């Protein structure tokens, strides 16, 4: 557990945890060894030499005081380390996530990361604050007590030492027996949480369709399954808890029985026997606490393993000697890309010259969005190469690559803050005049003018305070402010109403002027003015050319337009 904690934290953030473990270990060893003072103390009391017991009693009192101070310091360090651990995990997760390919952040994984940074980190930070010291005490106090037993009778010490692997084996067997149920409980818990969120978000649709009863049934089933899995997980741990309790009590009884036998045989004195009883009794409590600690630590370990799984995801490889693009043209050279067993792009070759507009169309699943994502290096190709300015994007520094690209997608995410804050994400050091100019070019200024708080209007989480068209204008203004030479557009207007689409299209026209543009569009009138139209089918280019050339050819593009064209009024 401690090794996993240290690995997850990394060398940069593991220092406080190492110091806390060391302090707690010293405290536990001191407590265990302090019981050695009981032997001369009991000798003095039982041999009718009470005055000679005072030095030993004083020494024991000092040992108790030192142990108490060490315990206080270790608990204090544990609470501080919990805070440091939370900060370190958030920093390490943030640093690592920033280096992962953007394609890794699927909707499902985004939800997992949200859980990691809240529930998982909160669970893990309680380990040094509340659980680490009992775990260390349950291990080191009994071992230190066995060392003291060697000073009394080596046979009893060996008996206690032999019991250690038995208890450890029972604990390991318990962990393995309950591991599957713990995983099932976590899975059912996540499923129930998802159903709750789904039920709340879908209220308008469910009520309009009169389906609330059915959907509540699904939620009820998920909650019932969660309860059942929690019950099974609790019951699966009972045999292990009973086994551990029995093993500890059996060892305790065996050591006492041996001590009584040696005392009756004359090999052991009454003072030694009494000391053995005290030592054995002191070992029982921390060992029995392992039964309760086991289940709690398994939960913490499960959360740690989830964090570790993310931290072991390979980051986006960076070139040791990055190169600079010579121009702003884009080239796809025999590109192959797969998602699992599915081939998305198959040997695709395409050249987008600097300053030209290329429109990519095709049916759903043809690989259009993937084409844009490969330029931005959301993923790395499996075969071939994607080049910007004659340089493979894998050989360009990620920051340099992102500085050359602007992206406007259909689904616009705005950060909680003001409209101006979200526009400034394009270029944080821009002047107020530059922000206003970009807003005017994106037709965002008229939105700002009619809002009560103007530029200080809060957009809400994800931009929920604005309409879809308004969010898209913010996105275009952001891209204009960034002023990158290569522009990637993915269905930027397909979800807008006609009025918003017309306004946003004006902003897009200004944004595309003088830039290398690769656009994906379903509304075919937006691609007619492109310098080149590429029709994708099954991950390959079925045909390409200008609008006029493709219409004269009467091929896939012409047929696609005929099917997609709106019916006459």
Q: Would you list the SSEs in sequence order as H and E?
A: HHHHHHHHHHEEEHEEHEHHHHEHEEEHH
CATH superfamily of the largest domain: ABC transporter type 1, transmembrane domain
Please bin the fraction of helical residues.
55-70%
pLDDT < 50 runs, ≥5 residues:
none
CATH class of the largest domain: Mainly Alpha
Cα end-to-end separation? 70 Å
Account of the protein in words:
The protein has 569 residues and is α/β, with parallel strands linked by helices. The chain folds into 2 domains: 2-311, ABC transporter transmembrane region fold (Up-down Bundle); 330-564, P-loop containing nucleotide triphosphate hydrolases (Rossmann fold, 3-Layer(aba) Sandwich), CATH 3.40.50. Helices cover 64% and strands 11% of the residues. It has 19 helices and 10 strands. The protein has helices at 2-13, 15-34, 38-46, 53-99, 107-152, 154-201, 203-209, 212-236, 238-264, 270-311, 368-375, 398-404, 419-424, 432-441, 445-450, 468-482, 498-512, 547-553, 556-564; strands spanning 330-339, 342-352, 357-362, 383-388, 391-392, 405-409, 486-490, 516-520, 532-537, 540-545. It has a 6-stranded mixed sheet with strand order 6-7-8-3-9-10, with helices on both faces. A 4-stranded antiparallel sheet has the order 2-1-4-5, covered by helices on one side. Helix 1 packs across helix 10, helix 3 packs antiparallel against helix 10 and helix 6 packs antiparallel against helix 8. The longest helix has 48 residues, at 154-201. The termini are far apart. The mean pLDDT is 80.
């Amino acid at each position: 557990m401690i090794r996993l904690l240290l690995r997850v934290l990394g060398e940069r953030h593991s220092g406080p945890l190492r110091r806390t473990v060391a302090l707690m270990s010293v405290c536990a060893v001191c407590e265990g060894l302090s019981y050695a003072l009981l032997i001369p103390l009991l000798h003095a009391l039982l041999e009718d030499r009470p005055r000679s017991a005072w030095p030993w009693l004083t020494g024991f009192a000092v040992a108790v005081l030192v142990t108490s101070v060490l315990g206080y310091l270790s608990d204090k360090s544990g609470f501080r380390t919990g805070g440091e651990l939370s900060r370190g995990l958030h920093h390490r997760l943030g640093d690592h996530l920033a280096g992962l390919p953007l394609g890794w952040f699927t909707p499902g994984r985004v939800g997992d990361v949200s859980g990691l940074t809240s529930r998982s980190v909160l669970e893990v930070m309680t380990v040094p604050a509340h659980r680490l010291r009992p775990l260390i005490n349950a291990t080191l106090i009994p071992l230190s007590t066995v060392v003291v037993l060697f000073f009394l009778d080596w046979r009893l010490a060996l008996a206690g030492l032999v019991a250690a692997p038995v208890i450890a084996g029972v604990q390991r067997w318990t962990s393995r027996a309950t591991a599957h149920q713990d995983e099932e409980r976590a899975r059912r818990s996540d499923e129930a949480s998802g159903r709750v969120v789904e039920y709340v978000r879908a209220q308008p649709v469910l009520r309009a369709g009169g389906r609330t009863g059915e959907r509540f049934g699904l939620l009820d089933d998920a909650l019932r399954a969660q309860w059942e899995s929690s019950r099974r997980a609790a019951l699966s741990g009972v045999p292990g808890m009973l086994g551990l309790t029995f093993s500890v009590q059996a060892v305790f009884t065996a050591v006492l029985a041996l001590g009584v036998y040696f005392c009756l045989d004359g090999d052991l004195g009454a003072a030694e026997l009494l000391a053995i009883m005290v030592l054995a009794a002191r070992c029982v409590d921390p060992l029995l606490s392992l039964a309760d600690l086991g289940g709690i630590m398994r939960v913490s370990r499960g959360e740690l393993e989830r964090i570790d799984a993310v931290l072991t995801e390979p980051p986006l490889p960076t070139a040791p000697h990055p190169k600079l693009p010579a121009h702003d043209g884009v080239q796809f050279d025999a590109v192959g890309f797969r998602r699992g067993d599915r081939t998305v792009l198959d040997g695709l070759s395409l050249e987008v010259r600097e300053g030209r507009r290329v429109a990519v169309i095709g049916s759903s699943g043809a690989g259009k969005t993937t084409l844009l994502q490969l330029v931005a290096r959301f993923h790395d190709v499996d075969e071939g190469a994607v080049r910007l300015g004659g340089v493979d994007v894998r050989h360009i520094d990620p920051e340099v690559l992102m500085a050359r690209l602007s992206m406007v997608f259909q689904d616009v995410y705005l950060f909680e803050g003001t409209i101006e804050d979200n526009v400034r994400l394009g270029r944080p050091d821009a002047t107020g005049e530059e922000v206003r100019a970009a807003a005017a070019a994106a037709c965002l200024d008229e939105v700002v003018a009619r809002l009560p708080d103007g530029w200080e209007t809060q957009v809400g989480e994800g931009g929920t305070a604005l309409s879809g068209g308004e969010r898209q204008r913010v996105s275009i203004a952001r891209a204009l402010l960034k002023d990158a030479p290569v522009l990637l557009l993915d269905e930027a207007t397909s979800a807008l109403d006609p009025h918003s689409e017309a306004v946003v299209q004006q902003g897009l026209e200004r944004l595309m002027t003088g830039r290398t543009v690769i656009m994906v569009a379903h509304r075919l009138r937006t691609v007619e003015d492109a310098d080149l139209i590429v029709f994708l089918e099954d991950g390959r280019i079925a045909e390409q050319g200008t609008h006029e050339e493709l219409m004269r050819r009467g091929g896939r593009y012409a047929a696609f337009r005929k099917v997609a064209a709106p019916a006459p009024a």
